[in-house]
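Batch manifest, entry 17 of 40.
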Amino acid sequence: MTTKLFSELGISAELLKAIDKLGFEQASPIQAEAIPVLLAGRDVVGQSQTGSGKTAAFAVPAVERVDPQLRAVQVLILCPTRELAVQVSEEVHKLALFKRGIHALPIYGGQSYERQFDGLRHGAQIVIGTPGRVMDHMRRGTLRLDKVRMVILDEADVMLDMGFREDIEFILEGVPNERQTVFFSATMPRPIQELIQRFARNPQSVRIEQKAMTVPTVEQVYYEVDRRFKIDLLTRLIDIHDLKLGIIFCNTKRMVDDLVDHLNAQGYSADRLHGDMSQAMRDRVMNKFRKSGLEFLVATDVAARGIDVDDVQVVFNYDLPYDVEDYLHRIGRTGRAGRSGRAISFVAGREMFQIHHIERYTKVKIQRGKPPTQDEVEEARDSAFLGKLRATLQSGEFKRQDHLIERLLEEGFSSTDIASALLSQLQAGEAAPARAPREAAWSGARDSRVPEQRRAPYGDSRAERRDRPPERLVRHREERPAAPRPVKPVALSTPLPDRSVAPIKPVPPVAPAEPVRAKSLPPGFPERREFAPPQPTRSPKHSRRTPDEQVRLYMNIGGEMGVAPGDVVGAILGETGLPAKVVGTVDIRERHLFVDVSSEHANGIIAKLNRTRIKNHKLKVKVA
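Output type: structure tokens
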């Protein structure tokens, strides 16, 4: 099946801009076949499995056919459930982002009538609704369909199964005869064929045949995981299987970019490959990947054609593809030249049906995996470390250090203590200080106690790079010049006068033996020798070291609890799913710390972190 870009389908510049903002560049098979026909104004009967991208296949032409100057319903989309109606409405809103004057309105049972009345009075041009509520508005006279140009039935077979046939017939009889009618369905039972014969005019059939193909001898497994925790599961699987070379497939360019940033921030060597890159940049990345200069290549399908590397250990489907052919193409990147391979897919929520669909057409059972626990990850690291140590001992290719061992024995240390200390030093990353494992957002994360013999291109081991946050994110407290301990201001029960406008009058000198006493202190208030002048409040609260676009947050944990900057960065990114660039400087003190975060996301970060823990300490986070 020939793949096409959206730019080849005759779509307007405004729609292409919205599609590009969503991160899509390659049309799915049903989109490539249906969009040109619908733009030509013909009736269409589309048959494709759920999850194949057919929402955009009819939503793009629907937005294109709307006249923004006409404040009347011009497109009617019928859905079987309120959830699907909301989902389709969100998709239409995203596609119409740059089409000024176009408004879409979902109407379904369970929602306030007043909100729907208000949307219809303001002239919504695209209505997405369930048959029952649409028919109710038609009877009330609040939904006029005399200007409708296009009627779309999404999941038509499901609507008939739910008993909506009479409602659908009533609605179709109430729209003008000169309209475009579109049926989308996964199956074509006889009742749907009867509706098509009655209400469609010479429709063109668009059917996407999924060919069952032979799957290579690749171990296939899927994990059911929430979208927020995909990155945590990905890194655990990389560690527990000790993977060194793999490809990670995503559906959008935006997800590719975000995932590369996350992996690099956690110490992995990763680079991107998608359609926004020039051919020279793609060639440079591919040459680096072929020479094992990268550990992981993160790519979209449109840029992944032609990847031919024999030593790929694993393929991750970070996002499931739209159709079976793309899935087979992806997993065919591993297990080449007679080698064994592994294909791992992440499934979130309703995507489970896509796994069943892949199994039906490939006639291969995809095993469901159990996410590894932190203990299992640590055990795997220990086993890998012992295997490398055992191989070194058996080969005898190491320099003997008997004289150093004898000196330690003479000092009274036992041989087991000496060996344990050496192993601890190795597992801590040789020169890196030992740190306790970082807690992740769902059930723990990674630590740095197992060294990696294979070095990254710029010298540090993966474990060392993972536990040492990027310099652009974190600056250690030791790097800053020591500052004198600030004098704590006295808390007064009565407010001091506003000194932000008038200058503060200097306190007259007094004898050393007499304490300085504020005139506004209430009786019985303890005397202090020094007072810090009140500082004018600012909003948002920035310190002198915090950039204008960031806010400094306070956390009730510090160095005494064994907290490292990487723990703070990992907790923020793991809980919120935000890119690494939202986190700035992390300043760790003995019993508390400060972290600079993006002003735009500060409230969300505070809300998320106040419900979590770091180093088994419940967080209290507020603006500093």
